[in-house]
Write a structure and sequence with these properties.
Blueprint: H1 3-6, E1 10-16, H2 23-31, E2 40-46, H3 53-63, E3 67-71, H4 77-87, E4 92-95, E5 100-102, H5 106-117, E6 121-130, H6 135-145, H7 147-150, H8 154-157, E7 163-165, E8 171-174, H9 177-181, H10 192-202, E9 207-219, H11 223-238, H12 251-272, H13 278-302, H14 306-342
Parallel strand pairs: 1-2, 1-4, 2-3, 6-9
Antiparallel strand pairs: 4-8, 5-9, 6-8, 7-9
Helix pairs in contact: 6-14, 11-14, 12-13, 12-14, 13-14
């Protein structure tokens, strides 16, 4: 048996919808990875794209026999992943985002580390690159890679050596993990990866983060898109609590909500007790000081004074939009719980 034939078959899942700007770069980095194409089973699960994405995937399908296109009528990521898992033939199942391009050794390294370590899930470091070559876009990419922006997420800030962690970006799963843990939670439009990895951890399985496994994410570069994305991320940091019996987030995901909530709550208390009006100012002042010091450090390291003025805006957009989204979701969830517990007549009838 040749070395190629002895390698495990790997199923790659690529959920996508309207990714015409990025899907070609993503698929090129997959089919030209150093893992033999004959040992790859690439499933592109498309959510009814309308921008030319399907045409690009069809071209890859004709040129590379390992590529298959699957329709995802629900158009959400967890459904796409579950369709892919059910169709998977590989010993390993690798989730690869259409927004990323992957280093040449990505797939082989994931498999080798899984076999070497006995890990049930292996992932790597994700670097951010701006979609547009603008100063604001560059600042966003820097913020996403900085602990002050990402809350210390290890797969964004990197680690010195392979480390056992709770979650990773994407992931290379042993196929039998889905038999033992179940599929992705289709109630979770976002955050399904973290929730799944928490269930994996609860089942006694292990996730390994390897710093030499790397990919690059095309980060949003326009201010309004960035705000909307962070609002939605904030919402889905809290809503998952309604749909799972595991803790679906880490504490760092809730910090922006606690910050925004403490400012609003202390301001309201200050209206009743004037002596306490200084509290929200102290909270905001401390945050502003941390933001300015972090921005100054970034500007000095990058030798670009402009970042001293742009980075604070990016950090504020990230933290406040995320925090407000989480706070809105918390209020909405509390209201739903109240109606469910005390006003049965106000409950919505099940669909269908």
């Amino acid at each position: 048996m040749s070395e190629c034939q002895s390698l495990p078959l790997v199923t790659v899942l690529v959920p996508c919808r309207n990714e015409v700007r990025f899907i070609e770069s993503c698929l090129n980095s997959i089919v030209h990875n150093d893992y033999p194409e004959s040992r790859l089973h690439v499933l592109v699960i498309d959510g009814n794209s309308e921008d030319g994405t399907i045409e690009i995937v069809e071209r890859f399908r004709k040129e590379h026999g390992c590529v298959t296109l699957i329709e995802n009528p629900r158009q959400i990521t967890p459904t796409a992943l579950n369709l892919g898992v059910k169709a998977a033939r590989g010993e390993f199942v690798v989730w690869m985002s259409a927004h990323n391009r992957y280093d040449r050794g990505y797939i082989r390294s994931c498999v080798e580390w899984a076999l070497r370590s006995g890990a049930d899930n292996v992932g790597g470091i994700i670097a951010a690159e701006p979609r547009e070559p603008t100063l604001f876009g560059r600042a966003i990419a820097i913020a996403l890679a900085h602990p002050f922006g990402n809350g210390g997420s290890k797969f964004r800030t990197s680690v010195a050596q392979p480390e056992w962690v709770d979650t990773v970006f994407g992931g290379c799963y042993r196929r039998d993990v889905f038999t033992r843990v179940g599929l992705f939670n289709e109630n979770l439009v976002r955050g399904q990866d973290f929730e799944f990895n928490m269930r994996l951890h609860r089942a006694g399985l292990r996730t390994l983060l390897v710093p030499t496994i790397r990919s690059t994410y095309y980060a949003r570069s326009k201010p309004l898109e960035f705000l909307r994305h962070n609002w939605a991320n904030g919402v889905w940091a809290v809503l998952p609590f309604r749909y799972t019996d595991v803790v679906p987030v880490s504490f760092r995901h809730l910090v922006p909500m606690l910050f925004v909530g403490s400012v609003i709550a202390s301001a309201l208390v200050g209206l009743l007790f004037p002596v306490l009006r200084i509290v929200p100012l102290l909270i905001l002042g401390s945050y502003m000081l941390c933001t300015m010091l972090t921005s100054a450090s970034i500007a000095i390291r990058a030798r670009d004074l402009r970042l001293l003025f742009v980075m604070p805006t990016v950090f504020w957009s990230l933290h406040i939009a995320y925090g407000l989204g989480s706070l809105w979701a918390a209020v909405r969830s509390a209201r739903a719980l109240f109606l469910h517990a005390f006003m049965p007549s106000a409950r919505k009838a099940p669909a269908g």
